[in-house]
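Input.
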Amino acid sequence: MSRYYFASRYSRHPEMREHRAELLAAIPSAVVTSRWIDCHNDTLEQSYTPEALNADPDGCWPHGRDDLNDLLSADVLVSFTGPGGKGGRHIEHGFAMGRRFTYGTPRIVVVGDRENIFHCDPDTEWFPDWQSFLAAEVNRNA
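Output.
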């Protein structure tokens, strides 16, 4: 059983829920650990604005802590690239790389165009799109 963490721009949460459903239909034993794609149990519909982050950092941090705990419980990070966002997904990617260099896990996957030099790491798997990744995962789990 693989445990996946999806890292993406927060506004893509509806798309990530669709990907989770497709992954679970294709690999029933899979788990997606990313609570953020369900808007943190419907408590955070949109990502925090810089104003909110600066006005109440203590109130905002629990969602970041949850994201890191979800990432720590995964053995595969799937980093979805694309325009926009504030960069949290890049922090998650870096966090996963540091963990992999130290402990050997998680597997790191980029879905979409490479956006920075860390996406060029030879141990990072790359797929041009979701369908290519999903097909490879189905084959890997056959």
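The mean pLDDT is 95.
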